[in-house]
């Protein structure tokens, strides 16, 4: 059983400051050289990487995932896109924070996007989000209409008809995240570390149920193309509950969305919620086909 989520509040105005000093090192990867810098806002430091060539694409990770975890997908996308990735607070090389609410994570995305807006880019970026990152991307796009070109949501931002965490399942979910937190000990001080406690992860998952209960209104505000890449077995392929119920709920959410928004392009991958790590080539290929090619300078 796999699970990852988020919650909702308006982002409001965000203050950020890009720091391109000593962090402006370049990691050469052929024609896809990556540049690294940091953004300071809200008392946290957000590490950002940018590299590739083509149209700008911003990739927002999810809860319990980092830039390093998404390395394969990032490198594949950089063949055709100028890709910006970053770590959310408390993840990877980002600093710890005193709050890990959905609003706080959303402010991290706002800070990154605000930094990119200062570059006076000729074209609006494609915004891609994985899991929690998909929900963050959806909220950003609905609050800043016209600032993105297209939206790609990977296994997130799903208007599920029923909450994922019920009172009956709460103890099992908390135990699962406690085990994950224990395993995280071996990743401490690495690019894949996650500093959130099991309780903080649990609380965010409870929040996401609230967020997704009202996310249909967010979809109605977006006039840009939306593509969704979803897993067929979000909670795994176990025949034991609650996995089958969670998977049915996951598919029901997308069916509900498409009934109202049939223009949304939807792709299903035979995978669980880890699809961004296990099916990176397929995801990159879908994004490549759904994004019209643009001439590279």
What does this structure look like?
Helices cover 35% and strands 19% of the residues. It has 297 residues and is an alpha/beta fold. It has one domain: 3-Layer(aba) Sandwich (Rossmann fold). Strands 1, 2, 3, 4, 5, 6, 7, 8, 9 and 10 form a ten-stranded mixed beta sheet that branches. Strand 5, helix 1 and strand 6 form a beta-alpha-beta unit. 45% of the residues are buried.
Q: What is the CATH topology?
A: Rossmann fold
What general form does the structure show? globular
Relevant CATH superfamily: Alpha/Beta hydrolase fold, catalytic domain
| CATH C-level | Alpha Beta
The count of β-strands is 10
| Unreliably modeled segments | 1-31, 293-297
Question: How many helices?
Answer: 9
Structural class estimated from helices and strands: alpha/beta
Averaging pLDDT over every residue, what do you get?
88
Major sheet characteristics: 10 strands, mixed
> What percent strand?
15-25%
Secondary structure: helix percent: 25-40%
């Amino acid at each position: 059983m796999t699970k990852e989520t988020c919650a909702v509040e308006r982002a409001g105005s965000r203050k950020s400051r890009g720091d391109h000093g000593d962090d402006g090192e370049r990691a050469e990867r052929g024609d896809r050289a990556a540049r690294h810098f940091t953004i300071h806002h809200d008392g946290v430091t957000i590490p950002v990487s940018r590299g590739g060539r083509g149209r700008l694409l911003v990739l927002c990770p999810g809860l319990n995932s980092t830039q390093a975890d998404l390395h394969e997908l990032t490198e594949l996308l950089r063949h055709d896109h100028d890709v910006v990735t970053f770590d959310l607070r408390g993840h990877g090389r980002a600093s710890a924070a005193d709050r890990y609410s959905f609003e706080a994570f959303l402010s991290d995305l706002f800070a990154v996007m605000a930094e990119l807006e200062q570059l006076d880019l000729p074209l609006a970026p494609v915004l891609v989000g994985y899991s929690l990152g998909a929900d963050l991307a959806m909220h950003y796009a609905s609050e800043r209409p016209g600032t993105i070109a297209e939206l790609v949501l990977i296994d997130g931002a799903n208007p599920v008809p029923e909450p994922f965490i019920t009172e009956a399942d709460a103890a099992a979910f908390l135990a699962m995240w406690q085990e994950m937190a224990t395993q995280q000990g071996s990743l401490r001080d690495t690019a894949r570390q996650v500093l959130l406690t099991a309780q903080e992860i649990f609380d965010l998952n409870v929040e996401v149920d609230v967020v997704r209960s009202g996310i249909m209104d967010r979809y109605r505000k977006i006039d840009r193309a939306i593509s969704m890449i979803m897993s067929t077995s979000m909670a795994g392929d176990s025949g034991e509950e609650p996995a089958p119920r969670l998977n049915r709920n996951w598919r029901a959410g997308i069916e509900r969305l498409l009934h109202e928004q049939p223009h949304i392009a939807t792709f299903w991958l035979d995978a669980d919620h880890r699809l961004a790590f296990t099916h990176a080539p397929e995801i990159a290929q879908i994004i490549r086909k759904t994004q019209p090619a643009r001439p590279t300078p």
